[in-house]
Amino acid sequence: MSDQHRRFLRLRQLPHVWCPGCGNGSIVKALLTAIGDLGLDQDRVAVISGIGCAGRAPFILDFNTMHTTHGRALAFATGMKLVNPDLKVIVIMGDGDASAIGGNHFIHSCRRNLDLTALVFNNGIYGLTGGQLAPTTPAGKRSTTSMSGNIEHAFDLVRLALGAGAGFVARTTSYDNKQMVTFFKRAISHKGFAFVDVMTACPTYFGRMNDLGEPYELLHYLRDTTSPSEDIAREHDESPPADLMPTGIFRDEERRDYGTLYSQRALATSGKGRS
Amino acid sequence: MKRQRLIQGNEACAHGALYAGCSFYAGYPITPSSEIMEILAQEMPAQGRVFIQMEDEIASISAIIGGAWGGAKVLTATSGPGFSLMQEGIGYASITETPCVIINCQRWGPSTGQPTKAAQGDVMQAIWGTHGDHAVIVLTASNVRDAFEMTVRAFNLAEEYRVPVILLIDEVLAHMRENIAWPEPGELPVVNRRAPESTAGFKPFADEGFLPFGAGSRYHVTGMAHGPEGFVAHGEAAARELRRMIGKIQDRVKELAVFEAAMLDDAEVAIVSYGITSRPARAAADQLRAEGVRAGCLDIKTLWPFPEHLIADIAGRVDRIVMPELNLGQLVREVERAAGGRCEVRALGRIDGSLMTPQQICDAARSGKLQAVGQENSK
What we know:
Chain A is α/β, with parallel strands linked by helices. In chain A, 38% of the residues lie in helices and 16% in strands. Chain A has one domain (3-268): Thiamin diphosphate (ThDP)-binding fold, Pyr/PP domains (Rossmann fold, 3-Layer(aba) Sandwich), CATH 3.40.50.970. The radius of gyration of chain A is 19 Å and the shape is globular. By secondary structure, chain B is α/β, with parallel strands linked by helices. In chain B, strands 2, 3, 4, 5, 6, 7, 8 and 14 form an eight-stranded mixed beta sheet that branches. Chain B is globular. The two termini of chain B are 42 Å apart. The relative contact order of chain B is 0.12. Residues 369-379 of chain B have low confidence and may be disordered. The A-B interface holds A 10, 13, 42-44, 46, 48, 58-59, 62-69, 72, 75-84, 86-87, 104-105, 108, 262, 265-266, 269-275 and B 15, 18, 23-24, 26, 42-43, 45-48, 50, 52, 54-56, 58-60, 62-72, 74, 88-89, 92, 212-214, 216, 218-224, 231-232.
């Protein structure tokens, strides 16, 4: 751990709750690198999370931190950002957190385009509750509630975010530190709603239940089940394999964010209330 | 002469919130509360305050809690179905000691019920709706001026005690218009958030006041059991913190009790009521007095913490308490408990969507036998 990361950690709150081999530590490290590289004011950064393994990240992060309820982190963050627009608000969610119980808040946050950065630590399973099926569990994969294999179709969160209108949409993996840092910096710098789907691996449940081996072998699994979107387009122009997840930046469009539009409208109607 | 305005209850709530300094509203449309958000949608941007329509009521309560920690005085308003959805957030607001106000314009029945019919069926849910032992304050109002004042009071209590405050009104009060003396600036007290003496090393749950995010002291907020610094606590430490949170409300029952008593000094019959039902209750007491029955009434405006000392005092002096409610007997259970068998307590319930009439209350006060709960009087 370098000093660059240490200054953003609450060392008294260590050790964290994550299992050995969990990818969440790698993601958090990349996030702290990105925050450090961008030179953000530590006092003006808020990290807001939901419930689940990913939701525990803020406990160890030395920013203004809030661990909210399951699925609602984006709604809490919406209130926080609207009343305190100078804060840089980063939202950390798990995949079940963001797309099952919090799916409604997720799509509406994409649509509303408030200036928030949303990161999903996507391990395709419910870790903290003991390895149950998530909306992101790939078809056929086993979990404690799909012991014979998942018969549902998995959510592709990137396509969901694109369809819901997010201005910045990217996917990376906890295997690729350099790409994570690059994408996180782009997402945090984006004015408007920015979403990064971070594919990661849960060795304790997803790995064990699907015979994927040791944590290092799960990193290989992440590497082998993802591919840069341009490579997929080049190599499989007609029908890319359904289980190959594209990585990359899928959209990066500046559009006027909710906060800016609200301020303009407030200015235009100033003093025009009825009372 | 004071400025008079003819407004409905929902308008009074909206303008009461503005008077109290509400700087952030998040909500979702629902009958019969929607006028509150429609008015605030127009007024708040024009006054440099923040309004947002969220995707549902869970998002609404979550957003106002986020807004409170961002430094705003916050409000949401809803009705039964939305209030059910908000219970999760109310629990979070309670354990994180977040100052916030929730107005529930009660409508009839569980589920969709009858959206345009009045009821007082959410009393127990307002007090106990979220899971686990927890602290909330529940207020009510019986007329339009009251709706204004109690909204201001709800904000004041939320700030003073750092607790979610629920204001229960109902469909009739929400839409009823009355001419009210418009409160002038400075006429009603307005309590603002207490800042800590020092920002350095601020502990968010140590009764040091309130410092919003980004104000120079980085701290942690969680809905998990936590200690003064906001980090996880277990066992005795968790129990101690929860007792403190509940105690700061329960230990101040007398200070928190807002009520109006009339003609109780020599009363043999006391009509105990709250909210919209206090109007026919007062009319019934007057009618009974005209008939020679020594009736009085107590309009309880603080439903929780329940002001049992008021009931205990009355129970020792009257023969009978009559408790009309637009439900099948919710707050009457608290009244019975507080009366402790020292007088007869008669529950009078009405659930056909109409208001209680003075005649019904008079009949219950006079008749020799107990009024069967839940049977509408045909008169």
